[in-house]
Specification:
Radius of gyration: 14 Å
Largest sheet: 2 strands, parallel
Structural class: alpha+beta
Number of domains: 1
Oligomer: single chain
Shape: globular
Number of helices: 3
Bound molecules: flavin-adenine dinucleotide
Distance between the termini: 36 Å
Helix content: 25-40%
Order of helices and strands: EHEHH
Length: 67
């Protein structure tokens, strides 16, 4: 499959973060979005996650992100 020459938004990385950004942007109506994944969607850290939704992280910023 060929990549488009231009896009309003290019997301690098198809883990949970990249897929979530793509999902939420398109839900907001921003549909010219390209997600680039070097191997296979969720093949990175996301593949290993147990799926637990914890909110306390090592730093305040990471805790805010998790919330
Ligand atoms: C063993 C383990 C268990 C875990 N369990 C949990 C859990 O229970 N609950 C929880 O909340 N979190 C858990 N985590 C943490 C969680 O998995 C990560 O915080 C989360 O998956 C990170 O997502 P991400 O999208 O930022 O990164 P990733 O999932 O790593 O995605 C990054 C993607 O970018 C791609 N990429 C990298 N460079 C490029 C490039 N140059 N061009 C194109 N693509 C590129 C990679 O191939 C990869 O697919 C766990 C982590 C591990 C290791």
């Amino acid at each position: 499959m060929s990549l488009p020459g231009t896009a309003d938004v290019v997301i690098v990385g198809g883990g949970v973060a990249g897929c979530s950004i793509a999902y939420h942007l398109t839900k907001l109506g921003i549909t010219d979005v390209v997600l680039c994944e070097r191997k296979q969607l969720t093949c990175g850290t996301t593949w290993h996650a147990a799926g637990l939704v914890t909110q306390l992280r090592a730093t305040r910023n990471m805790t805010e992100l998790a919330k």
